[in-house]
Specification:
Blueprint (H helix, E strand, L loop, with lengths): L1 H7 L2 H15 L13 H15 L5 H23 L2 H4 L1 H17 L8 H10 L5 E2 L2 E10 L4 H13 L3 H5 L13 H5 L10 E5 L1 H8 L1 H11 L7 E7 L3 E11 L2 E2 L6 H25 L5 E2 L2 E2 L10
Helix pairs in contact: 3-4, 6-13, 7-13, 11-12
Length: 305
């Protein structure tokens, strides 16, 4: 009896009892070879089928859904057990994309405020520019037989002709009718892209007339007192062009309302980038990382859009 009492007071015995108790209370890990499909999961499978087929599954279809789910579960577990997620670059990339999506999904939880949009517009006005634009009408002479004579006849006629005088207007006409005084002249030849052009940028004029003509036209248009006048003639690979410049608008930064759609996309992208960087930084902090034997701290960078 005394020996038993002495044994009960032994610290090593107390430690053994405590260890046994902790082992008994510790939750058992999930058996990798055990798969349980709950009623909730079966209901979800049936509901997904019903949403697609517009009717509940039959008993046979329900069994097929369960078998398909279990087949996928078995294959995914075997792939993880074989380490395919570590060696297969396609699987690894999909896992990275899934985590990226989770990391960035919080960035779109709330719409950007007008204050955020204004801040983006102020920080990067060059991204939200309306380019320099011209409104003009042309008289065109096509290359071909008697080109010089026909060009000279047009030049003589235009030297004494002003569309403003012909229309009885001494000022700028912001929205002239399709039948304009220049069109009514019936001078020159038809041009495939048309006679009259509104709100055309340098790039758009280049696309229709070629770079040399566009460059020369915009250079003349920027000179003082160049509007409401004949400019040219300008040469292109098609022939000669005389241009009546109606208006020129200098480049400008868009207003908040004009650029709202692009600003929303830009601010949301900034949020996603920030969320992505923060997620990687916090996640990497949980690892002991060494490069070439030396400690390494991950410093994630913004990704190219």
């Amino acid at each position: 009896m005394r020996a038993l009492q002495r044994g009960l007071r032994e610290p090593l015995l107390h430690f053994a009892w405590l260890a046994a108790l902790l082992i008994w209370l510790t939750p058992k890990p999930r058996d990798a070879r055990s798969i349980e499909v709950s009623q909730v999961q079966v209901t979800a499978l049936s509901r997904a089928f019903e949403l697609k087929a517009k009717r509940p599954p039959t008993a046979a279809e329900r069994d097929a859904l369960i078998n398909e789910y279990l087949s996928d579960e078995v294959l995914s577990r075997e792939a993880l057990a074989m380490g395919l997620h570590e060696t297969d670059p396609v699987v690894k990339r999909r896992l990275i994309q899934s985590l990226d999506y989770l990391a960035e999904s919080q960035a779109e939880s709330a719409q950007p405020t007008d204050a955020e949009l204004e801040a983006e517009l102020t920080a990067h006005p060059e991204r939200y520019q309306v380019p320099e634009e011209l409104d003009f009408e042309q008289v065109f002479v096509r290359s071909g037989p008697d080109f010089d004579a026909r060009s000279a006849a047009v030049a003589t006629k235009l030297a004494t002709y002003s569309p403003d005088a012909a229309s009885g207007s001494g000022g700028e006409v912001p929205h002239p009718s399709p039948s304009t005084p220049v069109a009514n002249l019936e001078l020159g030849d038809p041009f495939l892209a048309g006679r009259r052009f509104r709100s055309k940028s340098l790039q758009q004029v280049e696309a229709r007339f070629g770079a040399p003509l566009a460059k020369a036209l915009f250079e003349q248009a920027r000179l003082a007192n160049s509007t409401r006048k004949w400019l040219g003639p300008f040469s292109s690979r098609y022939g000669k062009h005389w241009v009546w410049l109606e208006a020129r608008r200098a480049p400008r930064t868009q207003s908040l309302q004009e650029a709202r759609s692009a600003l929303l996309a830009a601010v949301l992208e900034h949020r996603r980038q920030a969320s992505h960087i923060d997620f990687i930084r916090k996640t990497a902090a949980r690892y002991r990382i060494r490069v070439e034997g030396k400690p390494w701290q991950v410093t994630p960078q913004e990704r190219a859009p």
